[in-house]
Amino acid sequence: MTYIVKPKLHHPKLKQNALGFTHRDYEGKVSTLCAGCGHDSISAALIQAFFELDLEPHRVAKLSGIGCSSKTPDYFLGQSHGFNSVHGRMPSVATGASLANRDLIYLGVSGDGDSASIGLGQLAHCLRRGVNMVYIVENNGVYGLTKGQFSATADKGSKSKKGAGNQDAPIDLVSLAIIMGATFVARSFSGDKQQLVHLIKAAIEHKGAAFIDCISPCVAFNNHPGSTKSFDYVREHNEAVNAIEFIESKAPIKADYEPGTVALVRQHDGTYLKLKKLHTDYDPTDKTAALAYLMAHQAKGEVVTGLLHVEPEAEDLCGRMNVAKAPLNSLNEAELCPGSSALAKINAELR
Amino acid sequence: MVPTDVRDPNYFHKVVDCQWACPAHTPVPEYIRLIAAGRYTDAYMINWYSNVFPGILGRTCDRPCEPACRRGRLEPEPVAICRLKRVAADNKDDVRSLLPARPAKKNGKRVALIGCGPASLTVVRDLAPLGYELVIFDQDKGTGGMIRSQIPRFRLPEEVIDEECGYILERGFVELKLGWRIDSMKQLLAENFDAIFVGSGAPRGRDLDIPGRKEAANNIHIGIDWLSNVSFEHIDKIGKRVVVLGGGNTAMDCCRTARRLGGEEVKVVVRSGFGEMKASPWEKEDAMHEGIPIFNFLVPKSFTHENGKLTGIVFEKVKAEKDAKGRRQLVPTGEPDEHFPCDDVLVAVGQENAFPWIERDIGIEFDQRNMPKVDEKTMCSSHPKVFFGGDAAFGPKNIIWAVAHGHDAAISIDKSCHGEDVNDRPPPLVNLSSQKMGIHEWSYDNDISNDTRFKVPLRDQAITLKNLKVEVELGFDRALGYKETRRCLNCDVQTVFTRDLCIECDACVDICPVDCITFTFNGLEADLRTRLTAPAENLTQDLYVSDRLKTGRVMIKDEDVCLHCGLCAERCPTGAWDMQKFLLDMAHATEVSACRRG
Ligand SMILES: Cc1cc2nc3c(=O)[nH]c(=O)nc-3n(C[C@H](O)[C@H](O)[C@H](O)COP(=O)(O)OP(=O)(O)OC[C@H]3O[C@@H](n4cnc5c(N)ncnc54)[C@H](O)[C@@H]3O)c2cc1C
Ligand SMILES: Cc1ncc(C[n+]2csc(CCOP(=O)(O)OP(=O)(O)O)c2C)c(N)n1
Ligand code: SF4
Ligand code: SF4
Ligand code: SF4
Ligand SMILES: [Mg+2]
User: Which of A45, B265, B397, B597 qualifies as a cystine partner to B401, CB 3.0-4.6 A?
Assistant: First the structure.
């Protein structure tokens, strides 16, 4: 960490968004993570995405568990709401919060330890319920905060800093997310901000459970030869299936693309995802094919990135349960206590 | 773009905007840090070596460094560099023991210097410790040239001039011939000096030849002549109503002086617009602060007079218009002329060189404008023994340029006296050293202050307007000075990038508070400037470009508004970024020559 506060002085020609904010208005405190940690790049990508979407920081709630990754919400969106839960329990806090107030944008920030070990059950249920949130796992293959033990996402055979090999089979978070019913599943790399910012923006706009597995090298404990989560390894094995762009305009401009190279995916709210296909046979709306593709390519040692699965007409938990549109804390007595005749009606239905 | 070669001293020197802009290349941030550390004497000496007159310049410098200062591109106001110099001068201890030792014996070479202004005094400062016999001639009765004769005492106290001229004149075998005018260069050449330095300034004030000039002559004064008469105490009063004609710094000194000699209603009148005036913004501000209004777009037409006594000036009203070729021109508005009644007029409409005493057949060539032909680097004239500097060389400039010329001329004189090639210039002394003390500790204060520029406190006008000799500015005290030093961005602490160590983790890009750093694919400069994290529109500022990185991209840093905060280096996991202090000292004759002869 640094001792000084990041200076207030900024570039005189900084872009402003529709709210009149610069990207610097979306910053938080100075990071206390190790210099060069991949997680800091993800924080920077989040800042960029929220800035570009013209979102007011006070409309965002940041939720996290325990770990270096889970500390990061302190380092961006300093003016947003936040809750730092116990280890692996972010998903249930997010579920509860999203039911209590549908107005906020929920951003869950977790680590591979937080989500694939102690919080695996929580992760699974949150996704299958379709909580309307962005769930991002900053995946470095180790427990960074507790000094670099292998996590459940470490690849079999990958080496620790001291040279020990990992014996256990890894949990593939994106496959798991697709199987559990997440309606937006992506993988990215902290070292590819271009791709990551677009994915985060699309995930924020997605209604339903949007899951991003972001490989994020731990420079202190997992960035050596033999690691499969290092900068060098991921750069060498990164296979992007598509390049995504989020388009807010309801009617995207028709451009001249070579047939079969670009797919426009219309979302529930009329916005579009423009997918530039890098592997022409990859169709992210086909769940079975996506899973097969992932298994085949990951077996070859590729790190498959991009938008891997999306259900354009997804439903979310609150919609399905017909939860009140207004935040619960804004309901008045009349709305909460509809009176004895309403109670009699309900009772009658149950007889 | 080709990778930047940071071993070229000019690259990092340019990043230190203030030092680059200073004609004498004073290592500004280095002395500012010393002031912050309370080491006023050391700060003074750094200045003394570079610009010779820290106490004088700390009050009067034209400060080309300030418009160049990086802080001025991030905030409306630059660092108060000039007034910080004064803090060093005001608070230093006795420096005499730190000055170059007087030479034990003469080196056998004799140099004559015409004029005792800052240009000549700089030559003397650089040559005296080497044992030169130096003879200075000045027609005036005091040392310092226009520093003493023109700059009013309320801006620059006499003691400061005496002190700093004294340091120089006592450095060796210096003979001072005051009140001695040189009337023939031919004669002087005949006296067989090894070299002659012409530091005679630009001593002639322009006149205004309009009707009534002759008739009202008794109350019409040429600004610079009048100021020097005031300085040497030949004049001590002026009429109640005074009009000053002209918009340069001389006009500002004239009106403020008149205000102190009995002028109750002093006005400045300029031909063109207020914005086009040559005077520095702060000089205009100071004049107006003393209740002196400035009238613009008025062209003097005639002096009015009665019985041989001036009664006023008639002005034609004009406006600025573009002519067919797009050139700005002043054209009459057609409104009736305006009459400004007054008792005295000070004409401050320009200053010229005059060399009636240099014969044109002795090998010193002059150009069409009647100016000597002088080499800008060496200060040599077409005569092998004659050198020029200061206002005499290229027309009226300022003190700091005179100093810079003096340093260059001293090197040339020393070389020519030793039969060396004057075009072979000694390189500056350059030092680059890491400032890292610990993981997040640097040997400079990298915590950037958010303060805006502090104002220099002024003395009460009830006192200053009554006495010509009372200094108006009180200067920063130590506490205020300290606060102002913290506004400096330490631009000499350079961000140095080592390609081989970079793992392209983006940490520096993410932390940089001013978005200077980008990793992208190389291209032509014009294209690259549009592709950076933040727009790089200031073409006067370089892009620092690395060699190709592992991913095939390059690192590009726009030097323009870097805060030198070191956060990139603190966040870099591999030490690919380091903060290294770049210290550049210009070579001066004193050291160069001393080295040469062991
Ligand atoms: C009113 C006024 C205010 C100014 N204020 C500032 C200011 O605030 N800051 C700043 O940086 N600059 C200022 N300047 C400009 C500055 O004074 C000059 O640029 C500077 O002094 C030039 O130095 P110099 O060594 O070339 O010559 P000068 O200082 O002009 O000295 C030349 C000397 O040579 C003498 N001389 C000339 N001819 C002969 C001869 N034939 N024989 C013997 N002696 C001779 C002259 O009497 C004079 O003393 C001001 C100028 C004026 C007129
Ligand atoms: C209930 C509980 N069990 C164990 C721990 C110890 N612990 C702290 S962080 C951590 C793992 C964090 O790993 P990850 O989520 O991958 O975060 P990283 O630091 O790698 O970003 C563990 C096991 C804890 N804080 N609480
Ligand atoms: S230990 Fe690893 S994950 Fe934690 S801050 Fe350091 S580099 Fe990042
Ligand atoms: S900030 Fe300091 S070092 Fe930089 S240009 Fe200004 S005075 Fe010079
Ligand atoms: S020192 Fe580094 S982090 Fe600070 S402004 Fe300059 S480039 Fe940016
Ligand atoms: Mg981890």
Answer: B397
Mean pLDDT by 10-residue block, N- to C-terminus, for chain A (351 residues)? 83 95 96 96 98 97 98 98 98 97 97 98 98 98 97 96 95 98 97 94 95 98 96 93 76 54 74 77 90 92 93 92 94 91 94 90
Q: Where are the beta strands (DSSP E) in B123-211?
A: 133-138, 173-178, 195-198, 204-205
Contact B473, B463 (CB under 8 A): no
> Given B75, B506, B565, which is nearest A191 (Cβ)?
B506
Cα–Cα dist B48/B50, whole Å: 5
In a domain, A2, yes or no: no
Which positions in chain A touch B572 (Cβ < 8 Å)? 35-36
Q: How many domains are contained in chain A?
A: 1
Average pLDDT for B424-442: 92
Q: Each residue of B116-151: pLDDT tens digit?
A: 999 999 999 999 999 999 999 999 999 999 999 999
Q: Is the ipTM of this complex over 0.95?
A: no
> How many alpha carbons fall within 13 Å on the CB side of residue A97?
24
The residues, ordered by sequence, that sit 6+ positions from B217 with a Cβ below 8 Å of its Cβ are none
Alpha-carbon distance B202 to B369, whole Å? 14
In this structure, the number of other CB atoms found within 10 A of the CB of residue B525 comes to: 13
Backbone angles phi, psi at B461, to 5 degrees: -65, -30
In a domain, A225, yes or no: yes
Quote the tokens at residue A2.
Answer: 């640094």
Residue A6 lies in a domain: no
CA dihedral defined by B71, B75, B81, B86, rounded to 10 degrees? -150
Spell out where chain A has E strands: 60-64, 81-84, 105-111, 133-139, 142-143, 149-150, 184-189, 209-215, 238-240, 242-247, 262-266, 272-277, 303-310
Single out the residue of B439, B485, B567 nearest to residue A6, CA to CA. B567
First and final C-alpha spacing in chain A: 64
Closest by alpha carbon to B555, among B527, B516, B581, B526? B516
Residue A301 lies in a domain: yes
| pLDDT score, position A249 | 62
| CA A65 to ligand 2: nearest atom | 15
> Which pLDDT score is estimated for A269?
73
Of the partner residues B441, B516, B537, the one whose CB lies closest to the CB of residue A13: B537
**Helices first, then strands: H and E counts in chain B:** 22, 24
Q: How confident is the model at residue B598 (pLDDT cuts 50, 70, 90)?
A: low
Specify whether the CB–CB gap between A139 and A111 falls below 8 A: yes
Ligand nearest to the CA of A38: 3
Contacts of B343 (CB under 8 A, 6+ apart): B219, B238, B239, B240, B241, B242, B310
Q: Are B26 and B492 in contact (CB under 8 A)?
A: no
Domains and CATH numbers, chain B: 99-203+353-417 (3.50.50.60), 205-350 (3.50.50.60)
Asked if residue B17 has its Cβ within 6 Å of ligand 4, the reply is yes
Beta-bridged to residue B544, according to DSSP, are: B557
pTM of the model: 0.92
Q: Rounded to the nearest 5 degrees, what angle is found at the Cα of A74, between the Cα atoms of A71 and A78?
A: 165
Q: Between these two residues, A264 and B302, which has the higher pLDDT value?
A: B302
Q: What CATH number is attached to the domain comprising A38?
A: 3.40.50.970
What is the span of the domain harbouring residue A239? 23-320
What pLDDT was estimated at residue A281? Answer: 77
Picking from B505, B560, B577 by the largest number of A CB atoms within 10 A of its own CB, the best residue to mutate is: B505
| A145 CA → ligand 3 middle, Å | 6
For A317, residues 6+ apart whose C-beta sits below 8 A from its C-beta are A95, A98, A99, A129, A130, A131, A132, A323
**Which phi and psi angles does A188 have, rounded to 5°?**
-145, -170
Pocket test for ligand 5, best of B508, B512, B580 (most atoms within 8 A of CB): B512
pLDDT given for residue A271 in this prediction: 76
Are the beta carbons of B177 and B134 closer than 8 angstroms?
no
